[in-house]
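EI: anyone free to look at a 115-residue chain?
SC: sure, send it
EI:
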Amino acid sequence: MASEDSFQLYDLKVEIVCPPGAKILCGAKEGHHFTLEGEMLRLPPDQGISIYSLSAVLPLLAAKQRPTHKNDWMTTDGLIACPDPNCGSLLKITRTGLRTFSHADTTVVGLEGNV
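SC: here you go
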């Protein structure tokens, strides 16, 4: 049973998609990916991601981790364009599982808040 201070976040996989015939300028490789588990971003060995591509997807990750309404665009939209308008690569965000966290284990601020 979950504790009364628990909350859930989705684990995410962010995968590079290179459409056939697209010019790739950011060094992306089809199938390369990283995962996000809670706040921990994990890259497999010998894989990397352009800091510019990462900057395009990073602001969306915290929202994609949270449960959203089925009609919310954050639920349905998962392909993010490379920020270079001349590059055809995409980053595909997929929710892969649900993880439970304790509020007390993630912050020193009590449930009453400080705002």
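EI: The mean pLDDT is 93.
SC: 👍
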